[in-house]
Each structure stands twice: as C-alpha cells, then as structure tokens.
Amino acid sequence: MITRLSKVLLVSVILFSCEPNLVDDPIPIVNFDDIVVNLSFPDFINKLNTVGGYKDVSNLGGGVRGIILYRLSATIFLAYEKNCSYTPNEACATVEVDGSGLFMIDPCCKSSFNLSNGLPTGGPAWRPLRQYRTQLNGNVLTITDEIID
Ligand code: FES
After folding, report:
1. pTM of the prediction?
2. Which of 65, 117, 130, 149 is most buried, judging by how many CB atoms fall within 10 Å of its CB?
C-alpha cells in the first residue's frame, strides 16, 4: 500500500530530478567583446600548445558563465560556453573540465560532454554545449560572440 508520504516523495522525485526534459529552456544569448588570447604567453602555452590541451579562460570574460578553450588540432580551437545546455538557468548549471581531463561535466546534475565536439555523453543533457567562433592568426586566437552550434 502506498502511503501519503510515499506519494509526496514520489511526486517530488519526478518533479525535481534532472531527467531529460525536451521542453527545456535555451541557453541565454549574450553579447561580448572579442576575447584575444596570445597563445605564446606562459599562461596559455603550457595548457594549449598540444592537441587535446584545454584551458578555462573565464577570467577573460565572455559567455554566459565563461568559456573553456580546447585545442582540436594544430589550427582548430573550440570555445565552449560553460553554461550547461540542460536547465541552463539553474544557479549551478555550469560545466567544467573533469579532473581526468578527458571530458567536461556539470557537477550539479552530472551531465557530461565530449571535449572534441561538445556533444552530451551522459546525464540528463540532450543538447550539445554552445560553441563560439574562434579565429587563429599566427599565435593570436580571437574568440567572438558568434554562436556556431
Ligand atoms: S544543470 Fe542539470 S545537467 Fe546541467
């Protein structure tokens, strides 16, 4: 027999769990000035000089919750919005690179994302992370607020 308390608990779990919700809010749109990164500066050279390297550049501004840069190839850098693509308006909906360095994760609800394309790989998120356009000119990388996903 289901008690009243069990029913209340069941309804709470259904309402408040981070399950896929296909009518989810979109990530807010923000405009920001170009972010210019000199890849030869010590801050960046250690993290981004090899393919597969990454760095959280949120301290430079930009994005809704900041940006993670990922080096996909010698000439291609991906700039990921850190606002989680699932329930992005939640206070905690912010992704970071996992301690393993192998994927990105929203520690709040545990959605994980592929570093090389931003696609969700686990948890409730069903949309990829937003990406902003990047342009490489010699050693200077520019991140713009143009959305490319
Ligand atoms: S806020 Fe729940 S998965 Fe990101």
Report:
1. 0.85
2. 130
